[in-house]
Amino acid sequence: MDIMAFLILAFSSLFAVIDPLGAIPFYSGLTSHMDHNQKRKTLLRALGVSFGVLMIFVLFGYQVLDVFGITINAFRIAGGIIFFGIGLDMLQSKPRRWRTGIRKAYAADNEESEDEDIDDPSITPLGIPLIAGPGSITTVMVLAPQAPTDFGPGLLIIAVVAILLVTGAILLGADAVLKKLGRTGLKIIEKLMGLLVTVIAVQLVIDGLFPVIKNMVSS
Fold first, then answer.
1. How many CB atoms lie within 10 A of CB 53?
2. Are 59 and 156 in contact (CB under 8 A)?
3. Smallest Cα–Cα separation from 120: which of 200, 2, 39?
C-alpha cells in the first residue's frame, strides 16, 4: 500500500465511522437554541476536543496496549466486532447510545443544576463521543501499524485533520444540508455508511484472525 492509498483508506474509514452527515440531526438538535456565533464556537470547541483525544491514541495508543499486554491482532478483532455493531445500528436505523446517552445521564444526575456546563454540548456529546468515539479511536489504533512508512503517525494525523475539517464544514452548514437532503436523504446516506462500516469490520476481523490461525497451524 502506497502513501496515497493509505491516506484514502484512513480518510474513508474515519468518514464512515464518524459519519458527519449522520451527525447533522444530533448537532442541529443540540444547538437549536444557539445563534450562529454560538454554534460556530461550540463546533470549534468540539473539533478541538476531538483532535486532542484522537492525537492521544495516534501517538500513545500502542504504549497503552503494551502496558496491558494487548496484541494488535486482538485489537483488530475487537475493533472489527465494535465496527460491526456500529454498522448494524446504522443499517437498522437504531439509536446509538454513545451519541446521546451520556449527556442525558449527566443531566439526570444534575437536575438541580442548570448551569452552562449542562447546556454546552461541545465536549459531551459532540466532541466525545459523537466525533471522537469508540469507532474513530479504534480506527486510528488499527490503522497505525498499516502505514506504508515509518512516518505512520504523521500520515494518520493528516487524515484526522482532513476528516475534522470536512466534519466541521458539514456541521457548520448542518441546517442547510438538513433542508436540502431531508430526513429521508440522511437515512439513505446513513445506511450506505453502515454498509461500508460492516465491510470494514469484516475485513478487520479477517486481518486479525489470519495471523493467529497461521501461527496455530504452523505450530
1. 19
2. no
3. 39
In tens digits, what is the pLDDT along the chain, a chain of 219 residues?
Answer: 689 999 999 999 999 888 898 888 778 878 888 898 999 999 999 999 999 999 999 988 878 878 888 887 887 888 788 778 878 887 887 665 444 444 444 444 445 444 444 467 898 888 987 899 877 888 898 888 788 877 778 999 999 999 999 999 999 998 888 788 777 887 887 788 788 878 878 888 898 899 889 888 887
Burial 72-109 (b: 16+ CB within 10 A, else e): bbebbbbbbebbbbbbebbbeeeebeebbeebeeeeee
> For residue 175, which amino acid is it?
D
DSSP state letter for 219: -
CA-CA-CA-CA torsion sign (68, 70, 72, 75): negative
CA dihedral 30, 126, 37, 189 (to 10 degrees): -80
Amino acid letter, residue 210: F
Q: What is the C-alpha separation between 28 and 172, in angstroms, rounded? A: 10
DSSP string, 29-89: HHTTTS-HHHHHHHHHHHHHHHHHHHHHHHHHHHHHHHHHT--HHHHHHHHHHHHHHHHHH
